[in-house]
Amino acid sequence: MSLLRIPGGLVLAVPAAAAPSDAVRHCPLPARLYLPLVQERGQALHCRVQVGQTVRRGEPLAHDGDTEATVVPAPTSGRIVAIEPLTLAHASALEVPTLVLQADGRDETALLPPLPDWAQRPPQELRRRLAQAGVVGLGGAAYPAAAKLGRAVSLLVLNGAECEPYIACDETLMRSRAAEVVAGAAILGHIVAAEDVVIALEERMTEAAAALQAVLAGQTQIRLQRVPTVYPQGGERQLVQTLCAREVPSGAYPADIGVLVHNVATAAAAWRAVVLGEALTSRLVSVGGRGVRQPGVFEVRTGTLIEHLIDSSGGYTEQAARLVLGGPLMGLALPHDRIALGRGANSVLVLGADDVRAQAAQTECIRCGECARACPVQLQPQELWRLLRQGETGQAAALGLRDCIECGCCAFVCPAQIGLVDEYRAAKSALAIAAEQRRRADHARQRHDARNQRLAREQAAKVARVASRREEIAQAQTATANAATAPEPAPAETAEAAPRSMDKSAVLAAIARGKAKRAAAPPPAPPPETES
Amino acid sequence: MKTFATAAAPHLPPRSSVRQVMAEVLLALLPAIAVQAWLFGPGLLVQIALGLLLAAAIESTALHLRGQQPQAGLADLSAALTAVLFALCIPPICPWWISAIGLLFGLGLVKHAYGGLGLNLFNPAMAAYALVLLLYPRQLSLWTAPLADLDLGQSLQAIFLGQLPASWDTLASATPLSSLRQLAGEAWRMPQIRELPLFGHYGAAGWEWIALAYAAGGCYLVWRRIVAWQVPAGVIGATLLLGGLAWLIDAERHPAPLQHLAGGGLMLAAWFVAADPVTGCTSPRGRLLFGIGVAVLSLAIRRWGSHPDGVAFAVLLMNAAAPLIDRFTRPRVHGHAR
Ligand code: SF4
Ligand code: SF4
Fold first, then answer.
1. What is the residue-wise DSSP string for A395-444?
2. Most buried among A152, A159, B305, B333, using CB within 10 Å?
3. Is A134 helix (H, G, I), strand (E, B) or coil?
């Protein structure tokens, strides 16, 4: 397999004192856990419990309403005490209805039936299991794993290339739970019928590589591949580019070229869900930055408040200046720490005042091209920025705005300190909204057209029906007239007169029909035949 | 609950600033300034000081007129860089008003009338130099031979009072490029010309050392990744290739390729002027083309134009072409077909 270096990117060093050390520490179970009824991606969840209900760890609290219905498992046993508003870990910082689970301290667990013979089971069943166990992508997007595993691919990549500096949870996981990662990789590989399964990790992760190697010894289906330590190597498209020397076409998914990328932690969670029957109720979260006393990697229950996690890592230092969910390049700055950690939360950073950038220092672009040199997608960020500032979103889109992966490399290197990526993010969502509106408008227009067509069809059918009716009556009358041996009245006249009387009766019949319909409260399923 | 101020990602502190970039470019000019001051007298230092003062005044006035903070604008050091580049181009004993006119045009019109740093189409220093070259050719030819030993007093007198030293006629000397042009016009053969002391070791006595100093500073900037290697590679590569080709065809009539680089402004342009990001190209291939364009136009103007050196004009012409070049040299975006 040839390794292709991605263009651009950044080699970043982390202040050693601020980086998490890598032994797994346990964040104690808090008294209350908070589970927003809105997904990380913004869609509402369907709540399946009521206030006052008691639940055991692993039992479903809500589900996402997709075909597979991936659930939100209860992170511990206890009672649902309230549904109250809590700030969502989202750029909007909206307050959303959130389940509050009061832990009873017993941590009673409801297990799903273990499936140690998973290799004999059909992929469909295993996917259902992942959904029941609430397994989502743990790399950050928290996309339901079952939905992402719906297509067969030839190559499955387990992504252990930690994207951003300061984040250490994946490396820690691979080092301390290598066997789980490998076993999970095999299960995911089985589900998507992959011919080739690769665990990709960064060159610098020597210990993790050794641990995985030890587990992999003697087996051939799963390979280990070290990739360069350069940000954003862990990006899905960048990883595919490096491993396959192929680019995922713009607008397509890796699965479209037969590749599926899953985070290593997702693999471990899949193993637990399938082989042990355990739902996903905790994950590794790395805590870093100069603003926290004891940075580290913590095993954290879903729904733990950041406040509680920071307390468990020694509390804030005086330097604490910015709270970031995620990494320093793509992470989201949070307004406060009463925010719950969901399954997608891989890192909490408390950056010191010296380690953040002051806003509003932005000056004019000097066209130095540093941003273009750093862009892993080979965009011309300075040009996009100029176009967006002129309101030329369409032109920016033509130059590849939608291909921007929002990695932030451009904004990081820009000497004019322009918030490039923020601009692109806003423009991209504007484009997406416009596209959605267009789609809705098209949909409405289609529906409108369809309705008009249907009405026209019905009208035509009615006209035809009336005409054929007339015909019948006319024929019938002629027949009776003939039978009554009164040959004289002109057939034309009869034909003329009869429909007129028929018209009348048709109207009366229609009125009667209408009345009948109104009288019958629920209209009967097949419309009754009244045309007699 | 602890609250925090939020901000958009990325959260890491910036890696550099415009001020830092400009400061490093100024730093990289120091060797050339030192060599030129040593060869052509302390007048250069006076010109630099004068230029800096004028530039500060013009820049802050322009910023003020545009309703911006003068301090913030001055702090980016871009006007200082323009002043220093301009001072390096003009003769060290040029009258003071040449600087005033040049910088007023370069900074006031070429830079700020277009929206200031970043939005100017043309390099302000080159535009300023081109203007005064066209308007005041006599003052712009007040060069001496290298090591002519003009002292500070004489320089100050010449600059501010317009009084040339008494012995001026013995001190004055045409630049190698204009001598070359004149002698070639008088049907001298190239090898004969090269015998003259004015043409030094590689084609221009004294000037060749300045060129070397520019290259040294420029290499530093390339190493610091402030100057993209494509620009100097384009300028120097194309000069050597074209000059070399002409020289191989007829060494009697064409100067040797190194001579093109040794005299005149090509080395300054290659490392500092064509490499100005604002008015150059941004894509890698675009930068290479930009450099090649500067070299080709310079050589063409030297050969066929009415000026001994055409680097300033070449740069300005390429400045005008830069947006077009950028348009056609965009790299292929990830996931897109060519
Ligand atoms: S890095 Fe910043 S200043 Fe440089 S070209 Fe890009 S946007 Fe402009
Ligand atoms: S944020 Fe977008 S434009 Fe900027 S470097 Fe990343 S991919 Fe390129």
1. HHHHTTGGG-----HHHHH-TT---HHHHHHHHHHHHHHHHHHHHHHHHH
2. A159
3. coil
Minimal C-alpha gap between B206 and chain A (Å): 33
**Chain B closest CA to A413's CA: distance in Å?**
6
User: What would the pLDDT profile of A53-91 be if each residue is shown by its tens digit?
Assistant: 999 999 999 988 877 788 999 999 999 999 999 998 888
Considering only residues A337 and A42, tell me which one the structure prediction assigns the higher pLDDT.
Answer: A337
Q: Band of the pLDDT at A515, cuts 50, 70, 90?
A: low
Q: Which ligand is nearest to the CA of A366?
A: 1
Residue of chain B whose Cα is closest to the Cα of A257: B335
Give the integer Cα–Cα distance in Å for B10 and A55: 40
Residue count of chain A: 532
A16-350 under CATH 3.90.550.10, yes or no: no
Rounded Cα–Cα distance for residues A241 and B307 (Å): 52
- Indicate if the pLDDT at residue B120 is higher than 70: yes
Report the separation in Å between the CA atom of A361 and the middle of ligand 1, taken as the mean of its atom positions. Answer: 14
Element (H, E) at A61: strand A60-63
In this prediction, residue A523 carries a pLDDT of: 44
Burial-class residue A526 by CB neighbours within 10 Å (0-12, 13-18, 19+).
exposed
Closest CA to A145 of A133, A154, A157: A133
Task: Give the strand pairing for A332-333 and A320-325.
Answer: antiparallel
**Residue boundaries of the structural domains of chain A:** 16-350, 359-458
Place of tokens 């949070």: A334
The model carries a pTM of: 0.82
Beta bridge partners of A226: A201
